[in-house]
């Protein structure tokens, strides 16, 4: 097929625009990654000489190690709880008609409107008033509230696209409603569930604002630990942590990709 | 209502009735999808629901399967009242238009699904899956996933999956509509063979009249949520009870006529200014006045213009069809202004020729004139 001049122009401008966008998105990370290799104890760019000492420092600094473990635990529990609750809500919203359905939907979506610091502050006041201990579960609760709308949306969309014929077929073959759910609906919704859970985990892992209100020294998450660090020191350790951070998330996504094929999970297939 | 009740009462012996639909209705948010429907389906019969899109065929099928709940009326399967019984207890096999094969299971697992829900012993289940896959000629494909199969093969898996549970009734909703013509014909033959070999009570939905005519023991012609006629293919084709059926099944020529007098099925009519005496196949005729005279193309004969007792027309177009030619005529007396006849290809007249149409003395039908878009 012969391309016209216009096609060529569009083709090239397309490529240039795409490259620019990708470059723009990646720019902060590239700058930070380079800064993390700076020999000297200031966050400057470009570095004068290169070294990995800040990586060593990052691994030795206990708050980061503990923060990472906390963050992973909180993300795992938070995502799991949000996934189970969110999938349940989405199923009810899709399958049943009831009074106040719109209201329930609105309430579930409200964390998209209410800023994270309000949620954090609210739970801080509440836990103080009820004199609840500031445990990890308080942080998990905050994270569940924040990520729930995303999970509900993600599962709801999968349910809307779900071919009801599969369920009818199973029913006609003698499957009870419970069996249909377990052997047909859930397996076929699995990609949507995994993607919902994955987004929830990543959002939780990145969450900072609300966490700041409800953590203490023992339960602080990695982002909070980083914030506390940067208030005292201005060396490139934080840049090194950022790089480690990105690597952890990327490795997680890659693992999911290997296990379940990411395209399918992200519904872009 | 006489045209809409099933034919001779003696054949409706209760012991022979597999499915009985008693005054079942269904509306969706105020739109009526099914007017009250009465229907008895005999054991072992192949019954087709035929009708245009939106006439309620799928709705009726879903009511029998239990996917929808009837607003009114009762439903019996093998004389058991099942109106309130959920689908998983009805023992009905369903083949869906888009097959609905479980994509996360192999062909064998798909077919075995209905046996596992019934807790059939493993060895027995394996044997039945193997036999059923043999029946639909898919033995070599047991381990494939549905998406690795062609449309026709998927169709056969869907059929096997429904057959393996030995259903009391097999329901098929336009099962062949996604297949190309050749495959479609092959699958029609295959289904019909399997159905009659197993003596399976079958309800088949289609809007394709030739499919209905070739496969069915009986056809129920539907329009707008109602059964307009039920009978054998030849009853439906040769003796349509109303204008809707006459035009929906087969080619029809309708002439605007005036009924002058009637006696039983015999009538004096005029078409244009020409008087005719006809013996219809009907037992009763509408009241004298404006009526529609229904004639199949093969019942008309072309003559020269100006012959006595003919309707005058002019050739608009002759379409060569190989074995014959279709002659389309402009005719003032025809309801749509057009009449179609078939003649040997060599005898096709030239466009513009004036001709006469000789109407049959016996065999046509006379219907009350139907309002535009509103079947009587
Ligand atoms: N779930 C539904 N909600 C609202 N209206 C519906 C629903 N299902 C069917 N209808 C309406 O009921 C009528 C009958 O629909 P049905 O699906 O039974 O038609 P059909 O004869 O199967 O048509 P087709 O040949 O196009 O499949 C239609 O007017 C349709 O719009
Ligand atoms: Mg339909």
UniProtKB/TrEMBL annotation, chain A:
Presence of keyword tRNA-binding: no
Main location: membrane
Keywords: Cell inner membrane, Cell membrane, Membrane, Transmembrane, Transmembrane helix, Transport
Membrane topology: Multi-pass membrane protein
PROSITE patterns: ABC_TM1
CDD domains attached to this UniProt entry: TM_PBP2
Annotated GO CC locations: plasma membrane
Superkingdom of this protein's organism: Bacteria
Gene3D superfamilies: MetI-like
Signal peptide, first to last residue: none
Subcellular location: Cell inner membrane; Cell membrane
TM region(s), chain numbering: 12-37, 74-93, 105-130, 136-159, 180-205, 237-256
Gene Ontology process terms (BP): transmembrane transport
Protein name: Putative spermidine/putrescine transport system permease protein
From TrEMBL, chain B:
One GO cellular component, as annotated: ATP-binding cassette (ABC) transporter complex
UniProtKB keywords: ATP-binding, Cell membrane, Membrane, Nucleotide-binding, Translocase, Transport
GO molecular function terms attached to this record: ABC-type polyamine transporter activity; ATP binding; ATP hydrolysis activity
Enzyme class: translocase
Superkingdom of source: Bacteria
Biological-process GO terms, alphabetical: putrescine transport
Reactions this protein catalyses: ATP + H2O + polyamine-[polyamine-binding protein]Side 1 = ADP + phosphate + polyamineSide 2 + [polyamine-binding protein]Side 1
Chain segments annotated as coiled-coil in the UniProt record: none
ABC transporter domain mapped to chain residues: 19-249
Enzyme Commission number: 7.6.2.11
InterPro entries, per the entry: AAA+_ATPase (IPR003593), ABC_SmlMolc_Importer (IPR050093), ABC_transporter-like_ATP-bd (IPR003439), ABC_transporter-like_CS (IPR017871), Mo/tungstate-bd_C_term_dom (IPR008995), NA-bd_OB-fold (IPR012340), P-loop_NTPase (IPR027417), PotA-like (IPR005893)
Pfam families: ABC_tran, TOBE_2
Family per similarity comment: Belongs to the ABC transporter superfamily. Spermidine/putrescine importer (TC 3.A.1.11.1) family.
NCBIfam families referenced in this protein's UniProt entry, alphabetically: potA
Quaternary organization: The complex is composed of two ATP-binding proteins (PotA), two transmembrane proteins (PotB and PotC) and a solute-binding protein (PotD).
Function description: Part of the ABC transporter complex PotABCD involved in spermidine/putrescine import. Responsible for energy coupling to the transport system.
UniProt-recorded name of the protein: Spermidine/putrescine import ATP-binding protein PotA
């Amino acid at each position: 097929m012969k391309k016209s001049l216009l096609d060529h122009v569009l083709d090239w401008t397309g490529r240039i625009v795409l490259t620019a966008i990708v470059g723009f998105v990646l720019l902060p990370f590239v700058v930070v990654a380079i800064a993390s290799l700076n020999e000297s104890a200031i966050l400057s760019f470009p570095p004068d000489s290169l070294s990995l000492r800040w990586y060593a420092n990052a691994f030795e600094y206990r708050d980061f190690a503990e923060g990472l473990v906390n963050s992973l635990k909180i993300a795992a529990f938070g995502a799991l709880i949000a996934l189970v609750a969110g999938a349940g809500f989405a199923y009810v919203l899709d399958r049943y008609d009831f009074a106040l359905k719109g209201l329930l939907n609105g309430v579930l979506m409200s964390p998209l409107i209410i800023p994270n610091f309000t949620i954090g502050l609210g739970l801080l006041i509440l836990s103080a008033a009820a004199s609840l201990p500031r445990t990890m579960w308080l942080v998990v609760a905050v994270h569940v509230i924040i990520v729930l709308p995303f999970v509900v949306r993600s599962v709801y969309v999968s349910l809307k696209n779900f071919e009801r014929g599969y369920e009818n077929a199973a029913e006609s073959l003698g499957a009870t409603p419970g069996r249909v759910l377990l052997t047909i609906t859930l397996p076929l919704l699995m990609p949507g569930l995994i993607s919902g859970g994955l987004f929830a985990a990543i959002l939780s892992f990145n969450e900072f604002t609300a966490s700041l209100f409800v953590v203490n020294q023992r339960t602080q998450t990695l982002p909070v630990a980083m914030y506390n660090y940067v208030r005292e020191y201005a060396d490139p350790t934080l840049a090194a942590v950022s790089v480690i951070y990105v690597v952890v998330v990327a490795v997680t996504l890659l693992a999911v990709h290997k296990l379940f094929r990411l395209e399918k999970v992200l519904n872009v297939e | 209502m006489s045209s809409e009740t099933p034919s001779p009462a003696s054949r409706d012996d209760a012991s022979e009735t597999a499915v009985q639909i008693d005054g079942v209705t269904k509306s969706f948010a105020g739109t009526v999808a099914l007017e009250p429907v009465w229907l008895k389906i005999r054991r072992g019969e192949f019954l087709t629901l035929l009708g245009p899109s939106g006439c309620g065929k799928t709705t009726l099928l879903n009511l029998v399967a239990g996917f929808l709940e009837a607003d009114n009326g009762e439903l019996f399967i093998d004389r058991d009242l099942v109106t309130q019984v959920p689908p998983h207890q009805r023992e009905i096999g369903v083949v869906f238009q888009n097959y609905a094969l479980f994509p996360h299971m192999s062909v064998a697992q798909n077919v075995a699904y209905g046996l596992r829900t019934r807790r059939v012993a493993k060895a027995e289940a394996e044997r039945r899956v193997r036999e059923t896959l043999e029946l639909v000629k898919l033995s070599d494909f047991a381990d494939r996933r549905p998406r690795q199969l062609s449309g026709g093969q998927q169709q056969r898996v869907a059929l096997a999956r429904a057959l393996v549970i030995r259903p009391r009734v097999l329901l098929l909703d336009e099962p062949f509509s996604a297949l190309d013509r050749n495959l479609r014909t092959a699958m029609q033959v295959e289904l019909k063979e399997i159905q009659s070999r197993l003596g399976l009570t079958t309800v088949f939905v289609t809007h394709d009249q030739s499919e209905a005519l070739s496969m069915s023991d009986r056809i129920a012609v539907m329009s707008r949520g109602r059964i307009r006629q039920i009978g054998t293919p030849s009853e439906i084709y040769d003796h349509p009870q109303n204008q809707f059926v006459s035009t929906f099944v087969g080619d029809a020529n309708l002439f605007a006529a005036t009924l002058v007098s009637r006696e039983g099925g015999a009538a004096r009519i005029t078409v244009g200014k020409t008087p005719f005496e006809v013996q219809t196949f009907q037992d009763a005729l509408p009241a004298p006045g404006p009526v529609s005279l229904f004639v199949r193309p093969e019942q008309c004969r072309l003559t020269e213009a100006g012959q006595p007792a003919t309707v005058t027309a002019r050739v608009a177009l002759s379409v060569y069809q190989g074995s014959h030619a279709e002659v389309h005529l402009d005719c003032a007396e025809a309801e749509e202004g057009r009449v179609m006849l078939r003649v040997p290809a060599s005898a096709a007249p030239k466009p513009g020729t004036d001709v006469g149409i000789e109407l049959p003395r016996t065999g046509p039908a006379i219907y009350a004139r139907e309002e535009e878009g509103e079947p009587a």
